[in-house]
Amino acid sequence: MQILPFYLLCDESGSMTGDPIDAINRALPDLHHEISTNPTVADKTRFCLIGFSDDASVLQPLVDLSDIDEVPALSAGGLTDYGTAFRTLLRSVEKDVAELKAQGHEVYRPVAFFLSDGIPTDEDWPTAHRELLNSRYAPKIIAFGIGDAEAQIIGQVANFRAFIQKDNSVSPAQALREFASSLTRSIVRSASSISSDGSSDFTLAVEEKVPGFETVTLDKV
């Protein structure tokens, strides 16, 4: 069977309090429901949740969402540490792909949705980021920035698509609801596009435009 691993990395820094973190936590059950009740999507998709700050406080290992009762809630605290996110993701991807292959599955290139509301406090995060992108199973990264996140950094993080909160007329909570809807649609559409016999190429189905966000030009490498 062909499996598509999806990862959601969410900034849990101290500024992610109130509406922003609540908006994500309200959306996760919808994601769980959408995937777990759709057998076609659930069979082809595995999902991992990583909440990061100074230290990853939430790590839901890669799992078929139909196998769990609920997705763990994120919480706010600590500083915005991108290095933690990328190092945790790298370890998870390497472990997950190895296990899926050992189970006899074919594994598509992993996809990671990265969400941050601030500027990274760890200056050495580009090192962890390069190690992730240079790894054997480097994921496609779609990055979303809200609040104080800087478009330049969000564009540097992403290697597939990047978005930044449009303006102050859209609250972080509203922007996050749009992000969550985009995330759910992307996972469902992408997993649905994988053919049962592997005869057609997989296309990552991520919106080019998301309400409340502006598209950011990616850094060239």
Automatic annotation (TrEMBL):
Residues 5-183 form the VWFA domain. PROSITE patterns: VWFA. SMART domains: VWA. Pfam families: VWA. This is VWA domain-containing protein.
